[in-house]
Design brief:
Layout lengths: L4 E7 L6 H17 L8 E6 L6 H11 L3 E6 L5 H15 L2 E4 L10 H10 L4 E8 L5 H16 L8 E8 H8 L8 H8 L3 E7 L12 H13 L4 H29 L7 H34 L6 E5 L1
The structure holds uridine-5'-diphosphate and magnesium ion (MG).
The site of uridine-5'-diphosphate has 16 residues, from strand 1 and helix 3.
């Protein structure tokens, strides 16, 4: 049996790249179908994340021309992770497998063949991993690598250099649906599903048109979300810092006491001011981190829908 494949592609203001993406995927899917690797019911599902440009119009046109192309439209911009989830959850009921990939095709589309081969070997999750980042800017490479290291050191189980290019089988999509959290970080959740997985490598290319939809601000908040939704180590850090500071203050106390006993005068005002400022700053930082977690609890308890699908053309 040839599996039905849904290729889920989040699109946010991608009018510049979509024509090329559309062309390349059309070719790719035609070959895959000819080679009998996928069912003719397979689809390219463009998921519009509240784009302000012509993206949705392009998608509807593609759908009218050819029913290989489907579209899903969120009611407004909800971010990459949410729109991706919306697409995957739609694919869950329609497809045997879903592969997610960015609209700019920075991830080599030939990775689809490799992923399908792994699926045929019985893998439920196949992670696409970048074999090199030579085409990324130094800044992107540096920040991304720092992020993976930090996550690892905080005990979050994520696949190194794997972004959101992955294959999920029907049952792993169903398992993913069980995760109800609002602060969604798919890279952290997918390894928690636990089914048999494997990795395929590909070259990461440059964006061929348009600009990155992930400016520094979004990137930082993505990283911060990833950490605070998965790790309580920052809380532990507060505790150990507290212990360390108490220890230091005891040492200073003993030092002051000994100087006094030995009959030497001490000017403690400077020491006092420094310590007050230091502790004050530290307390504020700690409260800030605790607040971050309380913020998470707050969002989770509200149980707001993570996305609202406005329209589906399939
Ligand atoms: N994207 C999205 N919603 C957003 C931001 C980005 O759906 O709010 C999509 C975007 O259209 C693209 C993918 O997420 O398909 C990755 O974005 P981009 O290529 O700009 O990120 P980069 O490759 O620079 O990290
Ligand atoms: Mg990109």
């Amino acid at each position: 049996m040839r599996p039905i494949l849904y290729l889920v592609i989040p699109c946010y203001n991608e009018e510049e790249v979509l024509p090329e993406t559309h062309k390349r995927l059309k070719e790719k899917f035609t070959t895959l179908m000819k080679e009998q690797k996928i069912s003719s019911k397979s689809r390219v599902l463009f998921c519009n994340d509240g784009s302000k440009d012509q993206t949705w119009n392009l998608i509807t046109n593609y759908h009218q021309e050819d029913n290989l192309f489907s579209g899903l439209k969120l009611s407004r911009n909800r971010g990459h992770q949410n729109v991706l989830l919306a697409g995957l959850m739609y694919a869950k009921d329609k497809a045997d497998i879903a592969i997610s990939m960015d609209a700019d095709l920075q991830d080599d589309i030939n990775v689809i063949d490799a992923m399908l081969a792994e699926y045929q070997k019985g893998k439920d999750v196949v992670y696409g991993v970048r074999s090199s980042r030579t085409k990324d800017t130094f800044f992107k490479r540096f920040t991304a690598q720092g992020f993976y290291r930090l996550m690892k050191s905080l005990g979050v189980d994520i696949v190194y250099n794997h972004a959101d290019c992955r294959l999920l089988s029907k049952r792993s999509l169903q398992a993913l649906a069980e995760f109800q959290e609002v602060n969604l970080f798919l890279r952290g959740i997918v390894p928690l599903i636990g089914f048999d997985s494997s990795i395929v490598y590909y070259e990461r290319n440059e964006r061929f048109a348009g600009t990155s939809k992930y400016p520094l601000k979004k990137m930082l908040s993505f990283a911060f979300d990833g950490i605070t939704s998965f790790s309580i180590k920052p809380l532990r850090l507060i505790l150990s810092t507290g212990v360390l500071i108490i220890f230091i203050s005891i040492v200073i106390m003993l030092y002051t006491l000994i100087t006094k006993i030995m009959g030497n005068p001490i000017d403690s005002t400077h020491l006092l001011i420094i310590s007050i400022w230091f502790i004050g700053g530290l307390q504020m930082l700690s409260i800030g981190i605790v607040g971050e977690y309380i913020g998470k609890i707050y969002h989770e308890t509200k149980r707001r829908p993570r996305y609202i699908v406005e329209e589906i053309i399939d």
